[in-house]
Each structure stands twice: as C-alpha cells, then as structure tokens.
C-alpha cells in the first residue's frame, strides 16, 4: 500500500512524502550500501562525515535539525518572562540492524530531548530545555546518505531516516517528563506519567526571556537534540545520540524572540562541542562513568536470530558519557579567569560535585555557578502512583562552593540518600563553574591540560576525573605556571622534587633537613654535631655541616652560618 505523510510546512503548504509500505521487511542487517560509506547532508558538509552501516547493531543518530517553530509567544510565570521554542528533527539509523520504533504503551521507541545553549564573552551556558517527545512510527527517508533498506513503521530501517516536524516535537500533549527515562539503558515504563499544567511554554523548550538577546558575532546560540532508545543503548551505540546546530536569535518585542537555524547540523556532537569550535583554546575531556550493564535489548530477539544466528550477545555497555570542557584566560596583569562546563550526555548516575585542585597561597575571587531550570513538573513525584497531583520539578538549589587550602569544590546541598530529587547534573544538561585567580594555568593548549578535576557521582559512591585547566604555582612570577616553565626549559628540576630549582628557597647555610629557607638554631646544631674532619669521601649526605666544602666542619663554617642567620635571600 502507499501512504502519505506531512513532514513539514513550506509557505503554509504541506510538503508530502510518498513511499511504499511501512511494513518492516526484516529486522536483520540489510546494509544496501557499502559499510563505512560516508554520507552527508546536501550542501556544505557537516563537521564529521556520517559513517553508514556500522557493524554493531542498531545505531540511531540525529541526522538533521530543521524547521524551527516559535510557539504562540511568551508568557509570564511568577513575575518571570519566558519564551518557548521547538525544533524539527530527522533521525538516521547508521547501524546494521533496524531500530525498534513502536508507540506507547510500548517502550521500545526513542525519547527525544532538546536544549538551547548560549555563547557570550567566553562563557558557554545551557539556557533552556524541553520535555521529551516520544517516537511512534518511522518513515523511510534517506537524508544521511545511507541507503535505506525500506523498513518502516514499527522500526527505523537500516540506512533509513525519519523526520519529525518542529510542530510535532513541540506538541504539548505529546511531551513527557525526563525523570522517568534512564538515558544509559534507554529504559522507561510503559505507563505514561501525567503531570497537570498549561500555558504557552508548558513542557516546551522553555527559556527565560532575560537570557535571550539578538545574535551577533559575539553572541551565538546552539540547539542540541538527542534520541534515547533501548536497543541502541543495549548495543553500546548511545554515546553518539546527540547532535547540535547553530541558531540565530532576533527580538520582535521586549519579551518576544524569534529564532532561525543556520549552518549545518553537527552530527553525533553534543552542543558542548560548539564551545571548542568557537574557541580553539578550550580543552575538552570525555569521561566514562561506570554504570550497570543494560539487560533489555529492545525486543531485538528476532533481529539477533538473523544477524548473529542465535541470541543477542550480552551487552558491553558498561559506562556512560560525561564531557568536561575548560578555558583559562588572562583578565589583566596577573589575574586569570577559569571557566568550566560539565555536560552529562547520557549518565543516569548523574554528577553531584565538581572539584578543581589549587596551589597553596592562591587568592580566588568572582566564584560562580550556573545551571539550567527544570520546569512544568519535571521531577520525581512525591507519590509515584499519583504523578498528576504530586508532580514537582527537580530541586534547583545552586551548588555552593567550598574553598580549602588545596581545592575548590562545588556540590549539591543534599546527597541522593537525602533527596533523590536533588539538583544533580542529569542527562542532557550542562552546568558551569567559574572563578578568577591570581595564578596562571600550568600549561597551554599545546602542552595539554595540567591537572585533573574530580567529579562526584550522585546515585552511587565514587568519583571520576578529567583533564582541565587549573591554577598552578608561579614561583618566578613570570605569569607562566611552573609546570609549563619546566616543560619548556625556562625552569629546571635537577633534584626531581617537583619544585623548580631556581625557585627553591634555600642557601648554603640552610643545612638542616628538610630545607626550610631559614638559617636558624636547627642549622647551628647540624654544624656543632658534625664538628671536626668529614668522613671520606666528603659528601653533603655524610657531612652536612661542611658549609664551605673544605671536608671539615670548623670555625669557618660557624662564621658562614652566623653571617647567613635568618631567612635565605
């Protein structure tokens, strides 16, 4: 049979796509084109070519972000003005097995998240998020350049693409909360949680109007869209489910903004990657967080029987993805600004703390934190059996910062055990941390990040680390971190104690150990206790009181000690 579907609006008219039969031909591998064939969008290529027909099960990506919709204007909630947006998405299956695509009450279909990000004055922040659109049937387009095998309907076929318009992705009645989806496994319950509410921005990609201003060369916006589904996660193909595209923002009234899309969709790249594209000095660290291995294969038993000639192999998906990006920039004189962004791509365990090591004696100022607001009742209900009447947002309390002698740490105000609804960095969200310091970073981009930030895990004990820019000692006061001076040969560390030799505060008469940079009674006792000829052969280790290296400790060494009494110069 032949079916017709409206896939978009062009000057008020419906663009119609015709195709033959939505009945899936096969659940199994049907790679029509050559494996690893690079497919791209029409026009200028995306940043990375799409690799088609990957040989590791189903693999859904966001192939394109299209047809932005502005939904019915802004609204004021509790004295705060908000705008809302929605974006069209086209998914592609670049794997070698069909992706399951049933509708509720089925659970083997994708959940689609959207978020808006803003770049201004060196800062890259998430300013808005949406609820989740759930897939219900798949078409058989071919926009990713991978040859579609013709399977559609309850599956997205190998090489096939499926479009959802912006209006469909922004249809409020079809949007579901994030809290009941496990982004690591793709699992969610079959009963749809109902949360009551209304308004122009309800459930949509909501943004505070105060966070919006017209786009310019120095103010840029990006939208991120992400698909989460069980079978993709089971086969360990879910780290590439997010893509982003640049957005242009124009202002039509005091609180109303309109958006357009520009450039190309950057496939398989979360929005945080745009920061590095905009600023080459940004360092990006991809961190794997250990999680439970998925047990649900998304009803792919029939497909596995064909592809693997038996049961589906056990999942190897043992971790989820968090990305940490950092930037260090000179403000003026010896004052440096440190900027960090932590993006949780698909980690269900979530992030509860962020810590950056500090050198001794550092002075910090302008300590800051930024998160993104959940809304419309997107949080774990107080009564899971009655979400409509007990719905609430995830807690939005800002993370306080604690500064010690060796680190600055931001953390949630409550642990998971204290409040499972706490303000952790959950999947498809990004938080920012920042401060100014009177110390330079240890290294430049050409030599890599100089130290490890520590991220605490919200739902489980433990932590992970990632390379970042962080303040370093600057013992010779040249506004370059000591580790960089050592790396480029400006300073030296012959005794391999981690302290530049040129900066060790010591002098010949500072003979007591450890050297403390002061000639005092401790050094006098070393001279007295070593009085007389030195053991042969003469060596500092066996004759520390021999200040003038004469192979004996005598009045000459005593006079040298007296003359050097006090702090070393």
Describe the structure.
The strands form 8 sheets. Strands 5, 6, 7, 9, 10, 11, 13, 14, 15, 16, 17 and 18 form a 12-stranded antiparallel sheet that branches. The longest helix is centred in the last third of the chain and has 9 residues, at 521-529. The radius of gyration is 30 Å and the shape is elongated. It has 2 domains: 2-25 and 50-468, no CATH class; 505-567, Type 1 dockerin domain, CATH 1.10.1330. It has helices at residues 166-169, 230-234, 272-278, 301-307, 387-390, 482-488, 521-529, 555-563, and strands at residues 2-10, 13-20, 38-39, 50-51, 60-70, 75-77, 80-93, 99-100, 111-120, 123-129, 132-134, 155-156, 161-164, 175-176, 205-208, 219-228, 242-251, 257-266, 283-290, 319-332, 335-344, 351-357, 364-370, 401-403, 407-411, 429-437, 451-457, 463-468, 518-519, 532-533, 552-553, 566-567. It starts with a strand and ends with a strand. It has 569 residues and is mainly beta. 47% of the residues are buried.
